[in-house]
Structures are given as C-alpha cells and as structure tokens.
Design a protein that fits this description.
By secondary structure, the protein is of the alpha+beta class. It contains 14 helices and 8 strands. InterPro entries: CHAD_dom, CHAD_dom_sf, CYTH-like_dom_sf, CYTH_domain.
Length: 501
C-alpha cells in the first residue's frame, strides 16, 4: 500500500568546505550528526522522457531509511507530493496507475542511476524536536540509455520537518547565503543528471513563442486544458479534494472551445473529439453531481428544527451518498484505465501537434476571436430572454438550464480570448460567471427536488414518514423562485454592461 507525504525542500550548490555552521539559525538549539547514508536510485521514464517533461519523477531506491519506490509530483515552489511504495522488483500497480495518463502505452525503462553518499544533520529546537533535515550529497550519475554519459557533483538539501513552518527554510537560507552557499540552478537531482549525461545530439525542445495569430491564442488555451486533464489524472485516482471537479471543468473548457471557434479549428475534426470529451465529463460527473447534491441536502437538513425531522432522514441521506460515491468511484477508476480514455489523450496530443486550422486561423486575433465570443453571447441572450417569458415550471427549468450551459460556453470563449482582447473579454467573462452562478443555483435546486422525490418514495415504501422530504422539497422550490426573481435584474445589468466586443 502506497503512502503519501508532502515534501518541502530546497537545494543548494555545495562546495568542498561542507556544511556551514547552522547553530546560529533562529530556533535551532542543536545540530545533530545522523551519519552517512549510501543511496542507490534508478529513475524510470519513457524513452522520450514524458515524466521528466512535467517534472514528475519515478525511482526505485535502496539504502537509507525509506528504501522502496518513490513517485513525486510537483505541487508548487519547493513542494512536492511523494508517494512511497514498498521495495519490490517490479513497479507496483498503484504507482503505474498514477503515471498512466502521461505514459499511456509507452514502456517505462531505466533512464538514470544515481548513487549518493548522504551526510545527514538534523536541526532541532531546545526540546529536541526536528525542525529540518540538512544533507550534503555527493552524487554519481550514470545515464542508462544508449549514448549517455556520466557526471558527478555535490549538492546540499534542506528538507522541512513534517508539519513545519515553511518560513523556517527562509531562516536557514539566510544563514547559508551568508556563508556563501547559493541555491541550485537545477530543480532536482534527476533534472541535473539528465542535463549533464545527455547524449551529444539531443533534440531541442519546441519553442512556441508568444501568441500572434487567432490560432495561437486558441491552441494555447487548448494546450492548458489538455495539460490539466493529464496532470489531474493522478489526483483523481487518489481521491484528492476537488480533483474530479477540476478535471471535469477542463474537459468542458476543451469541448466548448472546439464549438466556440469553428472558423479557426475545423469541426469536422474536432466534433468527434468533443463527443469523447462529453463522454468523459459525463463519467466524471456521476460522482461529482452526487457529491454536490449530498452537501446541499445535508446543509438544508441541518437547518430544519429537530421536531420537524420525522424518521431517519439523515441516515438515509448519508447512506445514499456513501453508496453512490463508492459505486461511482469504482467505475471512474476503470474509465481512467480504459482504452477509450487513453485513446482520447492520444487524440488530443495529435490534434495539438497537427491542428486542423481553417482560413481564419492565420489572421490577427482581434476580429475572429471577438466574433466568436459575440456569437456565443447572442446565443445566451436568446435563451435567457426566452426563459424570462415562460411561467415557472418544468419548461422554464429546462430553458434556464440551457441558458446556463451556453453561459458557460461564452465564459470559456472569453477566457481563451482575454489575452488578445483584454478588458472587453474580461468584462464578458465576469458577467457570464455571475450569470452562470445564478443559473447554477437554480439547476441545483431542480436536481435537489428530483432527488428528494426519489428518497421520499424509498422512505415511504419502507414505512417511514415522508414529511421532512416534502418540507425540504418546498424549501428548494422557494430557493428556485428566488433565483428566478433575481434573473431579470442581473440580466438587465449584463445587457447594459456588454455592448459587444
């Protein structure tokens, strides 16, 4: 079973003089010598270094106190999530799954071997509590693929203790800089090893440059969403907070982009991709929609006085939520490993590498992007105004929901266009976000009422009172009416703000 740890550390260039005296660092009462560890790590990647390209590292290491398989994902500056699995001859299946979105069908091969002599010190406070671990590593790197070389260097690492204050690393760095120690130019041992042991003839990385044409802006947005889907895959597998929602949003942004810019990207090519993105978003939504509904209904139930709660409503709601979550999650993990999902990722890569550009793609971005955003806004306007003409009821509910979906598309189109169009696109984005939020509240109420009717029927069949479900249903209906009452004012404000891009 793999364990996850948040690792916060900084790397420095180390000279032959070794570790400076760190007893003067504020908060440090003692520097404890923990001896020298001998570490032997083999790093794995695809032949074209897909993991390294996104700063993900996968290694099998022996020696030291944490021998085993280590998979590291970047989180932010100086911060990574390290997932550790016990030592074995082959890559554990759980870790293989976490890199599948990047690796796909490519083989993971031994890429680099790093042997390190690690001289370790613990910085502790007056009560003997660990503040940080400091090590001086003498590293021997060897490229394991054909044509590679070897390298050797010495570096210093300062790793914050679990639960420590990251500001402590600033104090240590201040002392190190005074002693002439400078931050490392390389973000990791592997990155430095790859650079220093690379074959002489190495293909340079592609240079994208600044967006110039309409296509440049649209494709830049497409790349960001593709990258988000790939990067979020491991977080979804680990059931990280908000990961499913974030991946679903990325799929929607991509699909909307293909539909919003048909004069730039040929829909004969992008429509089948959009269909697959719709499928993926639907699978992601099975769990997410229930999660949102469960939170909404639980909060609503908490507001009901105890004397109006008839029967085991809370228990039934929790049981429904838990059962649905486990069922949906098992299905979702299967989807992420499916040939269909991996083929979608390959298709997105191919589309970005060889985009189906049309005539407008090569034009300056202003007019084509503005025309696309304005077209999406006009669709929103027609749907909102139709909804406002209808009486409250199911037909109006459907019209409001359709307007919400189109508001999302206009918002995403404005996001893609904002770097080129500036303030007008930003205004459109802000307006569509406000509209989407209001209409989303209405749709959540519609779905909550549907769920309450279903739960009520189950409770009634079990001989339980349906009174509380009816009470919650009535409250949800009133919430929907309030959002409908707010819509005319918000829409009038939006129409007064947006005169077209």
């Amino acid at each position: 079973m793999a364990d996850t740890k948040r690792e916060i550390e900084r790397k420095y260039e180390a000279e032959d003089s070794g570790l400076p005296d760190l007893t003067g660092v504020p908060g440090v009462a003692n520097v404890v010598d923990k001896g020298v560890a001998h570490l032997d790590a083999t790093y794995y990647d695809t032949a074209d270094e897909r993991l390294a390209a996104t700063s993900v590292t996968l290694r099998r290491r022996t020696g030291g106190s944490d021998a085993g398989w280590h998979l590291k994902f970047p989180v932010g500056p100086d911060t990574r999530d390290e997932i550790h699995a016990p030592l074995s001859d082959t890559l554990p299946g759980e870790l293989a799954g976490l890199v599948r979105s990047r690796v796909r069908d490519a083989e993971l091969v031994p890429l680099v071997r790093l042997r390190s002599e690690r001289d370790v010190r613990h910085l502790v406070d007056a009560e003997g509590r660990l503040l940080a671990e400091v090590s001086v590593d003498t590293v021997h790197a060897e490229r394991l693929t054909a044509g590679g070389g070897a390298a050797q260097w010495t570096e210093m690492e300062v790793e914050l203790a679990d639960g420590g204050d990251p500001a402590f690393l600033d104090k240590v760095e201040k002392r190190l800089r005074k002693a002439g120690v400078r931050p490392s130019k390389s973000p990791s041992k592997l990155a430095r090893a790859l650079a220093e042991t690379a074959p002489r003839k190495r293909r340079p990385a592609a240079e994208t440059g600044e967006p110039v044409t309409a296509a440049d802006h649209v494709l830049a947005y497409v790349r960001v969403q593709r990258d988000a889907i790939v990067a979020l895959d491991p977080a979804v597998r680990r059931d990280a907070e908000d990961a499913v929602h974030s991946m679903r949003v990325a799929t929607r942004r991509l699909r909307s982009t293909f539909k919003s810019f048909p004069d730039i990207l040929d829909r004969a090519v992008t429509d089948p991709v959009a269909d697959e993105l719709k499928w993926l978003a639907g699978e992601l939504g099975l769990d997410r929609d229930r999660e949102v509904l469960a939170a909404r209904l639980t909060a609503a139930l908490d507001e009901v006085p105890d004397d109006l709660v008839r029967g085991p409503v809370g228990e039934r709601l929790r049981g429904w939520s838990s059962a649905e979550h486990h069922t949906a999650r098992g299905r979702l993990l299967g989807i992420l490993d499916s040939r269909r999902h991996l083929a979608l990722l390959d298709t997105l890569d191919a589309l970005i590498a060889d985009p189906p550009l049309l005539k407008a793609a090569g034009k300056k971005p202003g007019k084509p992007l503005a025309a696309a955003v304005n077209k999406d806004f006009r669709k929103v306007a027609r749907l909102v105004e139709r909804a406002l003409e209808l009486e409250p009821g199911s037909e109006r509910d459907v019209a409001v929901h359709e307007a919400r979906k189109k508001a999302k598309r206009a918002r995403y189109a404005a996001e893609a266009a904002e770097p080129a169009l500036g303030k007008p696109a930003k205004t459109m984005l802000k307006s569509m976000k406000s509209l989407q939020k209001l209409l989303g509240e209405h749709q959540d109420s519609v779905m909550a009422r549907q769920t309450l009717r279903e739960l009520s029927a189950v409770a009634h069949a079990a001989g339980e009172s349906a009174f509380t479900y009816g009470l919650l249903h009535e409250r949800e209906e009133q919430r929907a009416l309030r959002t409908e009452a707010e819509l005319p004012g918000l829409w009038k404000e939006i129409r007064g703000t947006i005169a077209g891009l």
